[in-house]
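User: Sequence in, structure out. Go.
Assistant: Echoing your sequence, followed by the structure tokens.
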Amino acid sequence: MHYEMYIIFLLIFGLVLWRRTRAMVRPIKGSGLRILLPLLYMSPAFSVVMQPSVHMTTMEIIFSVVIGIILSIPLIYTTSYEVREDGKIYAKKSIGFVIALIAVFIIRRFVNSFMPHVDLLTLNALSIITLFVYIGLWRIISFTKFKKVYNTHLDSLNDLEQAKYQN
């Protein structure tokens, strides 16, 4: 087995988990577009999918997309935002989110082990498709959730401002 790969995966997963839990204690700056930045950061990995030596069947691609959609559901469900006392918007603290993130990591590794007939490059391409789908859906829906809180917060600030001028 490739124990080095598992160590690298665990290190990357640990960094992602640390970053996401740390983000729960820091306010989200600006209009929230930074929520979508990981999609841009992941785009170079998509070049693996386009390589001519990757041989994916339509069913494998559909399976990867469906798994991505399924994996995004717990992350979407456990991600929400709140305005705190300082008037800034934060990701809500949720142990459910941490558990969902760990479960997604384990499930991805588990699903990959059920595809031993697929060569390594194709398996990587299918994993990238799955990753793009679940991270993409999660980030886009998280952004819409943030914008909803952001717009509500702006409306309440505008109402307060108008009340000041009326008095």
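User: And one key feature?
Assistant: The two ends are 72 Å apart (CA to CA).
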